[in-house]
Amino acid sequence: MPPSSNGSLFSLEGFITYFVFRFPKTPFSSSAAVAGRGDYCLPAALLLPLCMSFASSGLAQVQDKPQALIHKLSDADPTVRGEAMRTLETMPSALVVPKVLEALNTADKDSAMRLVKVLVHHPDPTEIEPLIALAKKYDGLGSEVFALLGAEGARGLLSAVTKNCEAKVGAKDFPAWAGETASGIGPKARAVLKEQLTGEQPCVRKTALYGMAAVYRIRDANRDELEEAAELVIARLADSDGDVIETAERLLKPEEDGGTRYNATVEDFAPERLMKFFNAQKDPALRKRVLMALAAYGDPSVQEFMDHLAGDSDTAIQEIAQNYVPPKYEEEDRVHYTESPQSGVTPSEKAEEIEHLRQSSNPPDRVSARSRWGNPETFSIRPVSSNSSRTPASAYARRLRKASAR
Questions:
Q1: What is the pLDDT of residues 340-371, one digit of tens each?
Q2: Contact (CB, 8 A) for 344 and 260
Q3: Are 181 and 173 a contacting pair, CB within 8 Å?
Q4: What are the Cα distances from residue 295, in Å, to 126, 267, 268, 272, 392?
Q5: pLDDT tens, 108-156?
Q6: What is the pLDDT of residue 225?
Q7: Three-state helix/strand/coil letters over 33-88
Q8: How many degrees, rounded to 5, is the angle at CA 314 between CA 311 and CA 318?
């Protein structure tokens, strides 16, 4: 076997090495004899075409390999599919990505799911447009790849919004899907969303709104992030575009049943910031819009705020304040903390919330902490017949209610 770098003649390096050893350097003449040897040098005119032909053949074989492996992803034998998947995952992205994207054009949903798994191991900006097309075709399939594309993925999503503003991704509007997907990419992507809240295109601003409101879905999101998200969404109530305003109002609206999520959301931080935003406004129409959003909340501080505004000089504000009735939520009379060990609320969280209420400057909060949550073994949740409103700690109560219903 002639020498080569990988032990095989079937590489360009191996091919050339073979001829260097087989035919020593002599004048490039087919008749020039090598001193002391009986063989002759291969003519240069013949060597170059052979090298080029061999290289082209080898490159074609390498390029065909990903296509053959992609075909095996649809094999009936799971072992064959698994081996093909593992091989594709370890191959260079420059070879794999173009072939996978080409295959996605005609793939059915099952095949597309397997191809997406390959792309997860080969994130590349060239995948953005094909993945957006795939998501629209198959209800958001491929969204997980964007999480690996960083800020560039967020920009790609936002750049596609204008021409897809009326499109759907499954049951969601494209802006909602794009914003939520971008929000889950990471802090750098959320910085891009934050910038675009004041962008030129209304549909892009709407997408950024959805993204900021989706921060609550991030497991490690802290209180500061949630508070900032609430402020940013509230600020869009002053947007110049009616569609953006409507989106902000919808995102700020509390869930009708009081919510069923384990974690805190934008709405859990909205009342205080809505009141602050209202006090900073002078435009009558904007003040009315903000107060209407606030009227959907039943926190004790909202009632106190409305009582104060009952004497406002603006008759529209007076009317909203005077007709304000705290929303009611159908909740169980009492949920035992010990009955829901997987509720997501730890004893330390509960103790922290109780202490927060006890230290509140708002008397109803302190009363609530003392009379309703004085027993460390229970969470008291007011029944609908009590005609009482939602408390600032409603997120924790909602977690328990959902867990107990399991």
A1: 344 455 556 666 666 666 566 555 555 455 44
A2: no
A3: no
A4: 47, 12, 14, 12, 15
A5: 999 999 999 999 999 999 999 999 999 999 999 999 999 999 999 999 9
A6: 85
A7: ECCCCCCECCCHHHHHHHHHHHHHHHHHHHHHHHHHHHHHCCCCCHHHHHHHHHHH
A8: 45
Crossing angle of helices 202-213/187-196, nearest 10°? 140
For residue 255, the one-letter residue type is E
C-alpha atoms less than 13 angstroms from C-alpha of 201 in its C-beta half-sphere: 15
CA atoms within 13 Å, Cβ hemisphere of 169: 24
To which H or E segment does residue 169 belong?
strand 168-169
Alpha helices (H) along 323-404: 347-358, 363-371, 394-404
Separation between Cα atoms, residue 197 and residue 43, nearest integer Å: 69
Average per-residue pLDDT for the chain? 76
Q: What is the pLDDT of residue 149?
A: 93
- Taking each helix axis as running N to C, give the angle between helix 300-309 and helix 270-279, from 0 to 180 degrees, rounded to the nearest 10: 20
Among 153, 147, 152, 165, which Cα is nearest to 205's?
165
For residue 205, give every residue at least 6 positions away whose Cβ sits within 8 Å of its Cβ, in sequence order, or none.
Answer: 196, 197, 198, 199, 236, 239, 241, 244
Residue type present at position 106: T
In 3D space, the residue among 40, 47, 44, 51 whose CA is nearest the CA of residue 28 turns out to be 44
pTM for the predicted model, two decimal places: 0.66
For 255, which DSSP code? P
Q: Mean pLDDT by 10-residue block, N- to C-terminus, for the chain (406 residues)? A: 43 48 46 44 52 46 74 92 94 95 94 95 95 96 93 96 95 96 92 96 97 83 86 97 96 66 68 96 97 93 95 96 83 38 53 63 52 38 34 41 42
**C-alpha closest to that of 405 among 330, 311, 309, 346:** 330
Distance, in Å, from the CA atom of 277 to the CA atom of 235, rounded to the nearest integer, reads 8
CA-closest candidate to residue 323, choices 305, 308, 306, 298: 306
Q: 95 Cβ partners below 8 Å, 6+ apart?
A: 62, 63, 65, 66
**Among the listed residues 359, 342, 347, 357, the one whose alpha carbon sits nearest the alpha carbon of residue 394:** 357
